[in-house]
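User: I'm curious whether this sequence folds into something compact or stays loose and floppy. Could you predict its structure so I can see for myself?
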Amino acid sequence: MQLQHHPQATTSRCVRHTAIARLQAAKPHSHSSRRVQLLRTAAAGHEAASQKEAAGADLAAKKAATHTIVFSAAQYVQGFLAQPLKEAGFKNVEFTEAVLDKKTAKLADGCQVACIFVNDECDAETVECLAKCGVKLIALRCAGFDRVDLEACRQHGIKVVRVPTYSPTSVAEHAVALLMALNRRLAQAHVRVSAGNYSLTPLVGSELRGKRAAVLGTGAIGTEAVRILKGIGMEVVAYDIRKNPAVEAMGVEYVSMEDALPWADVISVHVPLLESTHHFIDGDRIAMMKPGAILLNVSRGGLVDSQALCDGLENGQLGGLGMDVYEAEGGLFFTDWTDMPLEARMKNWDRRFKMLTAYPQVLITPHSAFLTHEALANIAATTVANMEEFLAGQPLTNELQPKPEKAAVR
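Assistant: Here's the prediction. I'll summarize afterward.
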């Protein structure tokens, strides 16, 4: 049988052979391209690693060369901050117990970084002095910055950073500790027992479960306070200019001040100190409170009118006061004045503080609500990170800027 020849089949076979040949010819080139790509990727990675190493070496050199002074550095400050700074590569760090003001600012001569705390005075005159000393960065190791003239810092080319949050739980727990101590008269009981008086008559307290609490300000600390108070079994309402979904998720209702104050057995203040919140709690608002209410302030002293506190305690409108802050605490707190008469303990003598300390239903702590191991570790870590960002020329995560309207004024 004779096979028939099909020209179309022959053409298909030729095309197929040609395609195979091309693929085979292309294989070495394809492998070569992949090798080149791999080499390029490896080279790019090596270059990036080299750049990172160079940047790290440069940052290390800057750290070693940077002179830092830490103001208001009591022993506990050196205890929690010195080692982290050393481990991060900051070798030239000076600690001083002096509080920063226009007189002590000269201690920063030759320093590029000034690390300060909540009661250090950093007004325009002090900022000018720091700038003349060579300071380029003010590193607050706290959240509050009302004593820092941010506009003056901007004018003198000084950057300002802070620690916006370090342990909301520590501060909120302290507020509740004050509440419990006041409610069960623990301080009075301790004094009486120490003196040999074991009678119980004036020590009757109340259960907190089922009582009413109003939390004024529901940022990180206020939210923690809500959580703890609800855990105790208290009824809780909140006030803030902005509602916090986390608070609402706990079943807490936001109400007005007019509704909160006369309703609550306990009022806990957690708002920030701004021009608009100075004396946030004044005589009028104390008069609105439920008679015998307990007032707590672990936020900032200037939020509460001290004279109004004395009046409210004197006339019985306030049943208890727990405070970790005082509006004239600068020059008083963070220092041991044991050997000095009370009149000499304050830069500007304030008789109201003496009056407050005399009331048995008042409990005052020296701005120590933050003072826990966890909070100090967080403060140290954030302070180091803030300084590293500055020296590396990176955007400052926790930078403070003056208000736009003030920044525009020249």
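Summary: Confidence is low (pLDDT under 50) at residues 1-12, 405-410. The first strand starts at residue 67 and ends at 70.
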